[in-house]
């Protein structure tokens, strides 16, 4: 079926005359008349009958007009959805974040973004840095947010969002509480550490290597940073944790910070993308929003 002719036929019906349709479509009246005749010939029906000085739809014309309205309504809806997608108003973003940003930074970013783009679907998953990079490379996620000092592969593009300061903490009233000590002075304590792939664990191990010492007690292993901090706040052990995580426990005077002489420990929170890869519009909007919020 000639959809161009069908559209002109629909315009004639909606505007009431060939003359009005020609003005609306910015084409000549004879061109519209020819298109309608060709459509009638193609369909094998008569679409209009004369009515005084005007025109009236035949039964076939009425049926075809109603079906054409449905068709062009669907077309308009498709065009609207495509425009929304290309503007990043709709669609789905797959976001991966390591433990700390997943718990303390990303939720606020998602809330702010969803307030601006309520029709966007966001799929958030979390894990360690190696998993984040793997999921990026295998196109399982669009954006990764990591808190890590680990080297990033050359095919991953990173943007620094903020610096994450970390501190060693002990229970309130611990002998080392609020002290300034050497790292060696901490090795008698029981460390509460996350498992492999954890950047805080790697930082502690790095301090041990640099000073050529070993922890004297087997660390307690936990899954998440919050668990490590809660164990210390409950009165046992020592751990290395971000400022945002420990702030409430400091306010409630459940823990104290132990400072190291001449050592400040920090890591960068980074936004990671596949280098040279084009983001879908909705993912691009989320990236831009996070960069504005950092």
TrEMBL record:
Q: Where is the HTH lysR-type domain?
A: 1-58
Checking Pfam families in the record gives:
HTH_1 (PF00126), LysR_substrate (PF03466)
InterPro entries in alphabetical order:
LysR_HTH_N, LysR_subst-bd, WH-like_DNA-bd_sf, WH_DNA-bd_sf
Task: Give the transmembrane ranges.
Answer: none
Keywords for this entry? DNA-binding, Transcription, Transcription regulation
Q: Does the keyword Cytoplasm apply?
A: no
SUPFAM superfamilies to which the protein is assigned, alphabetical: Periplasmic binding protein-like II, Winged helix' DNA-binding domain
Q: Which family does it belong to?
A: Belongs to the LysR transcriptional regulatory family.
Q: Which PANTHER family match?
A: HTH-TYPE TRANSCRIPTIONAL REGULATOR, HTH-TYPE TRANSCRIPTIONAL REGULATOR GLTR
- Protein name per its UniProtKB record: LysR family transcriptional regulator
Q: What organism does the UniProt record list as the source?
A: Jeotgalibacillus haloalkalitolerans
């Amino acid at each position: 079926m000639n959809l161009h002719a069908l559209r002109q036929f629909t315009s004639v019906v909606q505007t009431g005359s060939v003359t009005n349709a020609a003005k609306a479509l910015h084409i000549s009246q004879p061109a519209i008349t020819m298109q309608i005749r060709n459509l009638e010939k193609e369909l094998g029906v008569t679409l209009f009958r004369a009515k005084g000085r005007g025109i009236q739809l035949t039964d076939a014309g009425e049926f075809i007009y109603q079906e054409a309205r449905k068709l062009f309504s669907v077309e308009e809806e498709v065009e609207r959805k495509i425009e929304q997608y290309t503007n990043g108003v709709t669609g789905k973003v797959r976001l991966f974040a390591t433990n700390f940003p997943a718990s303390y930074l990303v939720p606020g970013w998602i809330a702010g973004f969803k307030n601006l783009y309520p029709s966007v679907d966001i799929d958030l998953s979390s894990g360690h840095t190696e998993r984040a990079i793997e999921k990026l490379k295998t196109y399982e996620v669009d954006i990764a947010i990591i808190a890590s000092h680990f080297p990033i592969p050359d095919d991953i593009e990173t943007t620094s969002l903020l610096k994450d300061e970390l501190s060693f903490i002990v229970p309130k009233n611990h002998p080392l509480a609020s002290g300034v000590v050497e790292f060696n002075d901490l090795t008698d304590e029981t460390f509460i550490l996350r498992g492999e792939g954890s950047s805080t664990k790697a930082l502690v191990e790095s301090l041990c290597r640099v000073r050529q010492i070993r922890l004297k007690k087997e660390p307690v292993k936990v899954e998440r940073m919050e668990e490590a901090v809660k164990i210390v706040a409950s009165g046992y052990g020592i751990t290395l944790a971000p400022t945002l995580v420990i702030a409430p426990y400091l306010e409630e005077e459940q823990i104290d910070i132990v400072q190291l002489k001449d050592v400040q420990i920090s890591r960068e929170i980074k936004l990671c993308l596949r280098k040279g890869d084009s983001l879908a519009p909705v993912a691009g909007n989320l990236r831009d929003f996070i960069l504005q919020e950092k």
